[in-house]
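Hey team,

Sharing the Cell division protein ZapA run so nobody has to redo it. Sequence (99 residues) first:
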Amino acid sequence: MTDKLSINININGRIYPLKIDRNEDEEARIRKAAKMINDIILEYKKKYVNQDSQDFLAMTAFQFVLKNLELEEQGDESPIVEEIRLLDEQLSDFLSLNE
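Structure output:
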């Protein structure tokens, strides 16, 4: 049975209790994520003074989803790039043998 750790994170002034695996890396990652969210919300609050907090949360979520999609698309290209590199090496080797 995995030992769980109870932590509280604060997002936009609200406390959210979480139970996570007792792991320093996991706790640090969760706390960093909460900080990133709060930092972005703060930037939106400075830029758009008369908006509702729900708008800031929605735009922050939207921003993270867009970034995640970009990273997924980039990740899908790496096997293709690696395959092209290998084919280039093979072609270079073949051409050098036939000179």
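The longest helix spans residues 53-97.

Ping me if you want the raw files.
A.
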